[in-house]
């Protein structure tokens, strides 16, 4: 099977240019129409694609420029969903123990879920029309619809049992993936930082308190992802990005992948993993031994949380370390996460963002001879 894979990759979101932020602000004040905001987004995306290609990246995204937050603009296009309050038990953390004041919002399911219209058709057409290299689409994992609210956030009249809830979600995602493939999309990335919450005992205790076995819930999320990608084309890459949260330089979880690796790594039917490995919160590479050798692993060695540029020789040594646990021939490199999982972006300068992405490309060429 000839599925796309690249030695230099990136997770997706990019810092929003000032012109786009200004347009979003004007739209929020009703000073411009939605069509004008869409035009500003389209122009910003075309320029972001040009800059990604100029940096040497063999795969590009739209920077998630249409999204206020990495998951919301996708999930709330699913009929039956609504925005709930913050999940304070999942509040983010920042360096030095500071409180960044950010907590993920709960997704409410208040009616039967349905995909009444294509979710990302315009998004894909825009980037495909601008790109000379392969465009990648990023979508939030179905776990984001369930985790923060659980059974209590799902209307019991609409879904007396959760089997039907999950069946509808799988059907919606499968239809969206098929529609993207029909447009020519061959690289779909599923973003799932929720899986990293299972590293934290307080979050596992939260699930037990609402009557769930944490390991069974995590295994359920794995099964749902497998079902939603089961019908993909033989030449479509389905990848999953599992990080520990990324919003305004803050994070949600810490610790190596080991506590969740046995449930996830051997069992997810994805073609590639994009994994966070940029600092001490990420743990060691030993869990990579559980990933089947026919899969690909994109190692997120370059951080998006600050602008200091990593040393290439240090990164090469880290790749050597990873290669003790997973074949280097099946590896690639990337930043650990996006640069702007929320519209505000991380505390890094625009020029620092592009320097980081050029570093990823240069590292890939130095190690494998190609990006």
Named CATH topology: TIM Barrel
Mean pLDDT value: 94
Q: Assembly type of the shown chains?
A: single chain
Total beta-strand segments:
10
Instruction: Supply Rg.
Output: 19 Å
Notes on the protein architecture:
The protein is α/β, with parallel strands linked by helices. The chain has a single domain, classed as TIM Barrel. The chain is built from 11 helices and 10 strands. A 6-stranded parallel β-sheet has the order 5-6-7-8-9-10. A two-stranded parallel sheet has the order 1-4. The radius of gyration is 19 Å and the shape is globular.
Structure at a glance:
This protein is α/β, with parallel strands linked by helices and 371 residues long.
Which features characterize this protein?
single chain; 371 residues; alpha/beta; TIM Barrel; two-stranded parallel ribbon; 11 helices; 10 strands; 36% helix
């Amino acid at each position: 099977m000839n599925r796309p894979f690249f030695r230099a990759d990136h997770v997706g979101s990019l810092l929003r240019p000032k012109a786009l932020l200004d347009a979003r602000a004007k739209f929020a004040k009703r000073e411009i129409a939605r069509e004008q905001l869409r035009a500003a987004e389209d122009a910003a995306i075309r320029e972001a694609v040009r800059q990604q290609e100029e940096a040497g990246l063999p795969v590009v995204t739209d920077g998630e420029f249409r999204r206020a937050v990495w998951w919301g603009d996708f999930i709330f296009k699913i009929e039956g969903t609504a925005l709930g309050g913050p999940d304070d038990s999942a509040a983010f953390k920042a360096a030095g123990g500071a409180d960044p004041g950010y907590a993920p919002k709960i997704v409410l399911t208040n009616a039967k879920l349905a995909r009444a219209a294509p979710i990302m058709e315009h998004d894909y057409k825009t980037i495909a029309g601008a790109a000379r290299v392969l465009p990648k689409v990023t979508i939030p994992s179905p776990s984001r619809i369930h985790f923060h609210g659980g059974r209590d956030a799902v209307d019991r009249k609409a879904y007396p049992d959760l089997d039907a809830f999950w069946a509808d979600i799988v059907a919606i995602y499968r239809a969206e993936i098929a529609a993207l493939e029909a447009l020519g999309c061959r690289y779909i990335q599923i973003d799932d930082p929720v899986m990293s919450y299972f590293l934290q005992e307080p979050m596992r205790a939260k699930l037990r308190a609402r009557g769930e076995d944490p390991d069974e819930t995590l295994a359920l999320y794995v099964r749902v992802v497998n079902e939603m990608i089961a019908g993909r084309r033989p030449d479509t890459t389905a990848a999953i990005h599992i990080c520990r949260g990324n919003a305004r330089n803050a994070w949600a979880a810490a610790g190596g992948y080991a506590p969740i690796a046995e449930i996830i790594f051997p069992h997810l039917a994805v073609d590639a993993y994009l994994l966070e490995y940029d600092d001490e919160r990420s743990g060691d590479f030993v869990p990579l031994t559980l990933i089947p050798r026919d899969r690909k692993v994109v190692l997120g060695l370059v951080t998006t949380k600050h602008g200091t540029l990593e040393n290439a020789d240090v990164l090469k040594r880290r790749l050597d370390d990873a290669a003790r646990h997973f074949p280097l021939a099946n590896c690639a490199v990337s930043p650990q996460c996006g640069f702007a999982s929320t519209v505000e972006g991380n505390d890094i300068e625009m020029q620092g963002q592009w320097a980081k992405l050029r570093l990823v490309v240069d590292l890939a060429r130095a190690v494998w001879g190609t990006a």
